[in-house]
Design a protein that fits this description.
Shape: rod-shaped
Number of strands: 3
Radius of gyration: 30 Å
Order of helices and strands: HHHEHHEHE
CATH class of the largest domain: Alpha Beta
Mean pLDDT: 83
Strand content: 15-25%
Number of domains: 2
Structural class: alpha+beta
Distance between the termini: 70 Å
Helix content: 55-70%
CATH superfamily of the largest domain: Ribosomal protein L7/L12, C-terminal domain/Adaptor protein ClpS
Strand order of the largest sheet: 2-1-3
Number of helices: 6
Largest sheet: 3 strands, antiparallel
Low-confidence stretches: none
CATH architecture of the largest domain: 2-Layer Sandwich
């Protein structure tokens, strides 16, 4: 059997149908004991390891208002977009859900704002 050049092999691959290429892959797998799927499975493994381990969204709960109730009401009003009366009602009804299903980085910012105003905040 004559030895094929790389160029001849590449020309064949360019001209072959999907069915012919599929049969070629199966024949190579059987003859040489390799698997075309192995590199794909190994490439997917690091992506799974890089996935975040914690929750991606949380609910920000106000659990205590501290010494500065007015300051906390102002911050809650700013965060939620509520009017002054509704923000006061929310702060008076502790524990209160400030924002639901928030990304963790945004939740940390909200927590920092409320903590600076003297409030105590938890994530659920």
């Amino acid at each position: 059997m004559a030895k094929l050049t790389q160029e001849e092999i590449l020309t064949y691959l360019d001209e072959a149908t999907i069915l012919e290429l599929n049969e070629l892959v199966k024949a190579i797998e059987e003859k040489y004991g390799v698997s075309a799927a192995a590199p794909v499975a190994m490439a997917a493994a690091p992506a799974e390891e890089a996935a975040p381990q914690g929750p991606t969204s949380v609910t920000v709960m106000l659990t205590a208002i501290g010494d500065s109730k007015v300051g906390v009401i102002k911050v809650v009003k700013e965060i939620t977009g509520l009017g002054l009366v509704d923000a006061k009602k929310l702060v008076d009804a502790l524990p209160a859900e400030i924002k639901k299903d928030v990304a963790t980085d945004e939740a940390e910012k909200i927590k920092a704002q409320l903590t600076d105003a003297g409030a105590t905040v938890e994530f659920k």
